[in-house]
Amino acid sequence: MDKYLFEVCIDSVQSAINAQEAGAHRVELCDNLFEGGTTPSAGMIKKVRQAAPNIKVFVIIRPRGGDFVYSDDEIDVMLSDIDFAIKVGADGIVSGCLLENGEIDVVNTKKLVTACKGLPFTFHRAFDMCKDPIKAIDQLIDLGVSRILTSGLEQTANLGIDTLKSVIKQADQRLKILVGSGVKPANIKMIADATGANEFHFSARKEQESPMRFKNDRINMGGISGIPEFSRFLSDKDVIKATINALVRT
């Protein structure tokens, strides 16, 4: 177990409790996981910290969905969000910026890292949208980034194994590579064996039916068909345990 570290991507208090009870080391706390994760509310950060005191809580700082090119106003929002997240007990920050040409936005990412005041900073999957991952690694090391969350520039980690191997080799223990996207009990050992990775990020989510008895199914609140209105998704304790055990008990 000590060889590996497991982070669960969550968007609710109950998921944080489940991750803690299942033996995960850390959670990445988000809102809007259907958009890839955005900054959670002040109340959510505080309550997760209170409800799951024995697990590390890293907070994503991302003001909207979509691309990772941010305006000055958006950067100001992100800096304010980092300051508040630290005040209410965040153990680390997850964020990052790109330039329009697909390179790391060194100037703005440096602002975000500096705002963390020494707390660990994870450069999130903006990395998977960058033009030159090898160059990006060295830039992020110079900026003081602690780790990179990546699927190897593919939709899922099992598809990005070749790039993950190159990224881990390039990092050479100078920063940590956190492998995420599509990590499941059925493939985590294969990914670990193939890449040499020892940090893994997964959501382990299960759908739960809404308690609503009356359902107006003519409306999608976000205006987007296909996003479920009458169900909830939680990081499931048994799935988290199964994912961890698929690696540490083999």
Would you mind describing this structure in some detail?
With 250 residues, the protein is α/β, with parallel strands linked by helices. It has one domain: Alpha-Beta Barrel (TIM Barrel), CATH 3.20.20. The protein has helices at 13-22, 42-51, 72-87, 106-115, 133-143, 161-171, 188-195, 237-248, and strands spanning 5-10, 26-29, 56-60, 92-95, 121-123, 147-150, 176-180, 199-202, 205-209, 231-235. The longest helix has 16 residues, at 72-87. The termini are close together.
Question: Topology of this protein?
Answer:
Elements: E1 5-10, H1 13-22, E2 26-29, H2 42-51, E3 56-60, H3 72-87, E4 92-95, H4 106-115, E5 121-123, H5 133-143, E6 147-150, H6 161-171, E7 176-180, H7 188-195, E8 199-202, E9 205-209, E10 231-235, H8 237-248
Parallel strand pairs: 1-2, 1-8, 2-3, 3-4, 4-5, 5-6, 6-7, 7-8
Antiparallel strand pairs: 9-10
